[in-house]
Amino acid sequence: MIYSKDVTSLPDLAHQIVSPRFDVITQPVDVLSLQNLVMYAIENGIPIVPRGNGTSGWGGAIPTRGGLCISLSGMSEILYFNEFESAVTVETGITWRDLLAFLGRLGFTLPVYPSSATAATVGGFVASGGLGIGSTRNGNILKQVLGIEAILPNGKIVRLGKLLLDPKNDVLKERVDEGNSWLSEELSDAGLGSPEQETKLFTGTYGTLGIITKVTLKTIPNLQLIPFTCSFDSIADLARAADRILSDVKPYFIRFLADNYTSKLRAVNEYESGKYILTGALLDTIYQNEDNIEIIKTVTDEEKGQILDDKRAWFYWSERLYPLRIKRHGPSIVPAEMLAPMRMLPEILEKTKAELRNSNVAIEGTLSNDGTTSFMVWILDDERKKVSFTIGWYRSFQIASLAERFGGLPYAVGLWNGRHARKFYGSDVYNNLKVMKKKLDLNDIMNPVKVFGGRVTIGRESMLLGFLLGFIVTMIGGWVLPGLLNLGWLNQFLSSSLFQFIYFPILGLAGLVGGLVVVLITRFMRLNQALAIGIPVLRILSKLLRR
Amino acid sequence: MTKLDFVEKYGQENEPYVCASCGNCTLVCPVYSELKWESYGPRGKLHVVKSIIEGESEFGKDFAHKIFLCNLCEHCTSVCTTGISLDRFWEVARAEVRERDLLPAPARFVLKSVKERGDIMWMGSADRLLWMEGVEELVKGRILKKAKVAYFLGCNVSLKSQLHDVAQSMVKIMDYASVDFTLLGEKEVCCGAPLSWAGNLKDINEMAEKNLAMIRELGIETIVFSCPSCIQTWSEYSKFLKEDKSIELLTASQFINRLIREKRLHFEEQPMITTTFHDPCISARVLKATEEPREIMDEIPGVYHVEMDPSRQNTRCCGSHGLLDVVDPVLSSKIAERRLRDVTVTPATRIVTECPR
User: pTM for the complete prediction?
Assistant: First the structure.
C-alpha cells in the first residue's frame, strides 16, 4: 500500500476511478534489468508506473490500472562530475539529499532542488517539474536539466540533450545509438527537432513518454550562504518587500509563510506566530552578501517589517526541507497549489481565505524569478472522517479553478489536473506530446491516465450504482414518456387489459438494457469525464453539508 | 476497525495518519538498510499499524517480531518530516506486544532479569563491584558517600568485564581532577531503560526511583553517566526528575570537558595517533552532546581527529541498542559491520566512542 500512495491520502471514493494498489512492486538495479522489465510489460500489456519516493501530492506516481510499480530507488549511483563543465550525471533513484551531500563535499551545490530533498529522488522531481529551493534565482528544475537517458514505452534506450558520461564506462552505447537513430526518425516524422533538442518531451511529463534513468544536471559553486528572515503584519507589506528584494538583490531563494501557517508552527515564538514571514537565503560572495543583506534590512524597515536575528533565520532555513510538519494539524492533507503572478499575491490570499473560510488551512509559497509564485494551500483534514474528507477533496479542485480566475495555473498536472494539461504545457507543446505519446506508447501502458487522461477503472460500487441509475431512469422513462410524447396508440395500449401481461416484462427488460448501457458507458469513461461528473457532485454535497 | 488500545492509551492515535509516507525514516533505518524490505522499515511498520486500526491486518506474531527488529536509535525520529516521535511509538508498540504476550524470549529474559536481579544480565549486586579491581584505593570510602557528584556506571560498564576499564579510567580522571564524587556501588540498579525496550513502560519510574532515592539522600547535584541511554530514560520517565530540575545529568564526555575548561585536567604530549569518533545515537540525536567529545580530543596533544561519514546527528547506529543484539544478534552484527566499514575508509587507527554497547 505504501507504494500505492503519495504524501496525500485519497478518499475511498477516488478508488472508484483509479485502482487502489499496484499488482507488483519492482526495484530494478540497472538500466538493462529495467529494459527487460519494460519489454515484459509490453509483451503482456501490463501498465507500468515509474516511481521515485512518492513525495509529491499530485498522483503522478500512484496506480491507475494496477500493474507494475517501478521503484527507481535501487538505481542511485553518481556517474559523472566535472567541475569545469559545472555538471553532474546521476542515476535517477538517488535522493537530492545524497547528491547535495556529495556536491557539498566538493564545494558545489545545485541551482534548484525540491523542498522534499531529504527523501525525493532526482528522477521524481525531473519527471514532474516544479519550483524548489533555488528557484527564486534559477527558475524551474527543468531549466537545470542538461541531458537525460530514458527507456521508451517500446523498450528502446535513448539519450536526449547533453548527457555527460565517461565514455570508458558507457556499456549502453550501442543500444543507445540504435534507440536514438529510431527516435530521430520518429521525431522528424512528427516535425520535431533532433533528440539533442527535445529533452522537454520527457522531463515534466511524469514518465508518460518514458522512464528517465539518468540525468545530467547543472551545478553551481557553493558560495557563502546567508539565510535571512523578515516578519510583516500584512501580506501587502510582505509582497512589496519581496518585489523589491527580488529586483535589487536576486536572492537564491525566497519563500513566504502566511499568518495561518506561522500560527500553526510549533517552534515559532510568540512574536512570529500569526505574522507573515518572508524567508530565504543569499548565495554569493562574502562582499556581495554584505551589501545585499544591508539592502534587505533597509527594504524590510521601509516596508514596515522586522528583520529577525540570525538564529531565527537559520531556523527557517533548516525548516525549508520540512513543510510537511504542518500535517500534524490534520492529520491528513488535501493538496492544492497554484502558480500565479506574484503581484496578485495579496488578492489571491484574501480570496483563498474567503473561499476556504470553513476549512483549516495553512498557506505558503515559493517565489520564482519569472514573476510567478507557487501558492501552496495545505488543506488540513482528517481521513478518518470518511464523509467529510471525501467531500472536502472538492476544495483541491476549487483552488485550481481559483488559479484560473487569477490568470494562473495549477502548480502541477500529475493525475488530477490532466484537464488543465493543454493550458499548463501550452497548446503547441501539448499537441507535440500527444503526437509522441501515440507514436511511442500505442497501448498506453506507460504511466496511463496521467497528463493525457484516459480510461478509468470503475469500481464495483460505481458500476452497481450506474446499473441501478440506468435501470431506474429507463423504467421511469418507459412509464412517463409515452404520456409526455402523446403517443395515442401506446396510451390506449397502456390502459388496455393486455398491458398487465406484456408491458411490465418489456419495461423490465428495457430497464435491464438501460442499466447495462450505463455500465458499458462507465467502462469506457475517461478520467476527465469522471471528474466532470464527480466535481460538481462534490461541490453540491460540500455546499449542503458544510453549511 | 480493530481496537488498538495502546495507540489511544499513550496518545499516539494520530501518528499513523500524520505520517506522509515520504520515506525519510526508511532511508536512514539501519534495519531497513540490511533487510531491504519495506515492512521492516519505520514507514512500513507505521503503515501496518494503520491497516490494523482499519481492520485490514492483524497484530500477530510476525508483526510483533518486526516491532523488535529495531535499534530504537532515534534516527527515524530525528528525520521525520512531520515530526512524529517514532521511537516513542515503537516503545508503546512493544508495550502492546507485551500485553498480547508475544514478546520474543530474549526480551522476556531481560524483563525477568531486571525485576529479579536489578540488571540486564542475570548477575547480581555483588558483581557490580568487580570492576573496582585495580582501583581499590581510588574508590575506597566513596561508595554511598555524601558528595556533590555521583558517577552512575549503568549495567554495561559495571557488569561487562571488557568495559571495566571505562569505569576504572573514569574514576582515575575524577581523582586526578580532585572531584569529590560518590558511587552507588552494589546498591546501584538498572536505570530502567531496558524495561522500555522490552515493553514495560509502567515500572521504569520505579527502577529510576530506586537509584534516585539514594542520590537525593546523598545530596548529589550532578550525576555523571557512562551510558547516554540512562540519561534519556530518566529524563523521560522519572517523575521526580521531571518535577525537580535541580539535579544535573551529564554524559562522561560533557563532565570531562567541563573539567578541562575549569583547568582541572591537563594532558601530556604523547605519540601521534589518528582517531575518529563514533557518536552514540542517544548522545547525538537526543542529548545533542556531539561537540564535547571532539573538544576533549582537540585538547589532547598528539591526537589527530578525523570525522567519519556519517557523524554527529546523522551517526549510524552500532546495531546493539534497543535489545536488537539479543533479539537478532546476526542482524545486529551486520549493522555493526556497516558502521565499521565507515571507519575503514578513514585514516584513523583508533575509534573513540562513548557508547557502552
Answer: 0.89
